[in-house]
Structures are given as structure tokens and as C-alpha cells.
Structures
1.
Amino acid sequence: MEREIERRIGAVSAVTRALYRSVVVKREPSLKATLSIYWSIYDPTLTFGHKLWVVDLLLLH
């Protein structure tokens, strides 16, 4: 579990750096920044988020 948390923190740091370079230096995000956002936010949400949604539904009922 701790390894997963460290991996996600590292991914967020990479996205933050890519966004800073893309947004502050340029007007539009680069392909690298866009892919970093996808792989660090959307992919984990779609892959692992559904498990949390099921747990939330079970806890509500």
C-alpha cells in the first residue's frame, strides 16, 4: 500500500512539473503534459475508482 501511495505522489509531482513548464512557458499543454495528466489522473480513476464506488455503495446500504 505504501509503495502505491509513493507511486501516486511521484506521478502527481511529474504532472505538476509538466503542467508548470507547459502552462507557464507556453500557452497550450504539450503532448507530454497531456499524457502525464491522463496516466496519473484518468487511468487510475478509471482502473481503481470503480472499486471505491462499489465499496461506497455497499457502505450506504
Note: The helical segments are 2-25, 31-60.
2.
Amino acid sequence: MSRFLLIFIFLDFTLSQIKENLQVQQQLIDGERKVSLISTIIMATKELQDLTIYPYKYLTSNPDPINIESSKLEATYSSLGEELQRRCICPSCHLDNLESFSELLANLEK
């Protein structure tokens, strides 16, 4: 009887090890998928950034300083516009107040 009990305990221990190994393998597979997804996103982001750069960067090795400056200004204005839009949204009701702000600026310019 004790022999069967020892065999049962051994089999139970072996099954728990197998379950643990399967869990570790699944975690490894999930981690590899996440790394693959992140690297794909990073590559796509870099490609998108490359596509948004002005063509003169690819056409000439010595780009025109005016084009570089205008590119920097456009990036600055774009980020400022996004920041202005973000700040014109009411934090409590999430209402976009950009139109009323534009009207106020137009009245101030007159």
C-alpha cells in the first residue's frame, strides 16, 4: 500500500512540475510576442518619422538652412497648436472651447 502511495505522490509531484513548466513556457511565449510587437511598432514609428521629413533631406546632402529652419518652425507651431487645443478643453465637462477662444482673439485683433 505504501508503494502505491509513493508512486501517487511522485506522479502528483511530476504533474505539478509539468504544469509549472507549461506556465513558464506560456509566459515566455507571451513575453516574446510583446517584444516582437514592440519592435514592430518602433520600426513603423521610425519609418513614419522618415516619411514625414522633407524630401530635401534625401535629395541633397547639403540641405538649405532656410528649409531646415522652416521645418523646425512648422514642428514648433504644430506642437504649440496641439498644446493650445489640449488646453482649450474644459477639464470638468470636456467641452472644446477653441471656437470661443478664436472668437475672443478675433475681437481683440479688431
Note: The first helix runs from residue 2 to 52.
3.
Amino acid sequence: MFRRVVASLLSVALVGCGAEEDVRPALQPAQGTLTINGKPAQGALVVLHPADGKNFDSRGSRPQGAVGQDGAFKVTTYQDGDGAPAGDYNVAILWFGKSGNASADLLAGAYARPEQTGIRITVAPGSTELEPIEIKGARLMAAPAKPSKDHDGL
């Protein structure tokens, strides 16, 4: 009798120990370009948020791409350049300059809220090229000044 009780308790305890498996959706390779005021936005981060507001995995992953010198970006969800699930997305853009190390968004947060940017894209099955994203008339914050070589931090 004692063995049955212990076995029952152990089986109940072990059932609760299993970790929920993170099921990853099928991804569609995708790439695009971003220009701001007619110039490549090198260092900008393009972040895709599902337009329906639902997460496609338990982690709440957001596909994103870092913009290169030529204005091009490849969408990454889990591994470099793997793409995004097919679907419609609202887009947020953060731009910390060419190095990506500046302390302030050069767009002053104007494109940080995906539901307010008005930028929508569709990742379509069978197509890897996204519509170009062109932002015109953006007011840019000045990049932080670099300290001079003789700057002693005082």
C-alpha cells in the first residue's frame, strides 16, 4: 500500500515537471530596404509586430532586421536571416545611428510604436522581397557629439 501511494505521488509530481515545448512556426525568408529622407538608414532596427496582436510563439518573439550601409536588412526571428512567419505586420523603427551605440533614438521615438507608425508590411509565402520602406520628412535628432581626444571626462 505504501509503495502505491509513493508511486502515485511521484507520478503526479513528474507530470508537473515537464517544460512546455516552444513550438516555432514555419518561417519565410524576407529582406527589404529602409531609407529615411532618401538615404539608407544604416544602423536602424526594423521590428515586425504581428498586425493581429497575437504572439506566434510562447516567447513573444518579434522578427527584426538591422539595416546595413546600403539600406538593406534581412529579417531574423530565431537565427540570423531565417525570416518571419507569413502574415501582416505593423512596423516599428529605432535608429541609434551608424554604430548602433548612441544613447538616443535619432527618430526621437516617432516610429517606436508599431500601431502608430502607419508602416505595414506583408511577409508573403513564396516571396522573399518586402516592399521598400521609405520615410520622408523625418525630423532627426542630432547624433551625440563624440568626445575630443583630449577630453578628460571632467
Note: The chain is about 10% helix and 25% strand.
